Amino acid sequence: MAKDNTRRTWNPHAGPYLGEVSSLAFLSLPQHVCPIPYLLAGFGSEILLYELTSGELIRSFQVFEGVRVHGTVCSGSFVRSGDKYKCKLVVFGEKKVKIFALVVELGSSGGEVSVGLEVLESLPRLSNWVFDVCFLKDSCESLEEKEDKLLAIGCSDNSVCVWDVKESRMVLEVQSPERCLLYTMRLWGSSISTLRIASGTIFNEVC
Known about the structure:
The chain has 207 residues and is an all-beta fold. The chain folds into 2 domains: 19-124, no CATH class; 126-207, no CATH class. It contains no helices and 15 strands. It is globular and about 55 Å long.
């Protein structure tokens, strides 16, 4: 029997993501731009942006490669420059954290709104999975100059590290005396002195 020596050519390519929605966050725009918030949905390695009044998908952004989005946190304050409004947006997934500038631009007619993402920084890969992040202000600055200069990052080994956004370096790392793996963590506060941490452990405890 003659052998078929014909070589087959394979052209693998990435198909659409068919998994779960892994994160949700409301995005509150300036009131005069849009009184109803938008919705940010983590879907695979993408962020999907929805307009809530119509339920329409406005934009999709590829934020990671091969890493699922687990959470998004906005700095909460937009800075205006002409017809553009900007705020910082942190996206995290697994051991990766990225900081973006979320840019909202008004059309010439004033009714049309466009939204874009600009990468500001990709943090070095962390040793453990990230469960939550929280923007913090530098307590050394005056009230007029205060901005979200620091980023607290809560990890699955029950530790918290603080990243200096302006200097692009890790300035603090604290390990909890309760050395155990977590299922979840939440951070709350506006500065290092007011930061509060709640950790959900694998032993059905909150500490």
